[in-house]
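Quick start: load a record and inspect it. Here is Auxin-binding protein:
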Amino acid sequence: MAEISVPVFFFFLLCLLFFSAISEASKCSVQEFPVVRNISELPQNSYGRGGLAHTTVAGSLLHGLKEVEVWLQTLSPGSGTPIHRHSCEEVFVVLKGSGTVYLAPNSHEKYPGKPQEFSIFANSTFQIPVNDVHQIRNTNEHEDLQVLVVISRPPVKVFIYENWSMPHTASKLKFPYYWDEGCLELEPPPKDEL
Ligand SMILES: *[C@@H]1O[C@H](CO)[C@@H](O)[C@H](O)[C@H]1NC(C)=O
Ligand SMILES: *[C@@H]1O[C@H](CO)[C@@H](O)[C@H](O)[C@H]1NC(C)=O
Ligand SMILES: *[C@@H]1O[C@H](CO)[C@@H](O)[C@H](O)[C@H]1NC(C)=O
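Running the structure step on this input writes:
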């Protein structure tokens, strides 16, 4: 009987683990996608958040983008994002409806503090500076709020706050984020940059 030496056995075991991890990691990516995609036909999901409809229009995990990711989100009246921050740039274009953006500039305090409030409206645009704690809410009770969102440095690493007086150090990392779950088992958790 042919004997398999212990190092060779472990080499094969490692290869097996490596390739199963790779296939696991890429199970969300779309291998073949058309150049032009009809946004109405892309998957849309609430990812368990009431009032949210999220579509990844162009993604790092889905479509192989390295520098940016684009989302289309619809928030029903009264709904909103969590209070959160991320170490990437983020640009919003409001396509429909109106609402409020709450922004606590990163003033190097121990916690975000009372945010500034800004009204947003159809055809308005705003950007969130890197690591500033923010929240977007549809504060118009009559109409959906629809936004196109561009982020840099995908996939997004989100730190979530329960309220504006919670210390930065107590914010909870959600990574992979809801729409990236199941795609990212290989990546080590990122370091907090605050
Ligand atoms: C895009 O998809 C929607 C929903 O399926 C459909 O109604 C629409 O006709 C499509 N647009 C084009 C140009 O194919
Ligand atoms: C948004 O603003 C641009 C520039 O003024 C204008 O051409 C466009 O029609 C506006 N869109 C809406 C939906 O108001
Ligand atoms: C904010 O959330 C923290 C963590 O859950 C809690 O301990 C604190 O009491 C909350 N503060 C306010 C003002 O609600």
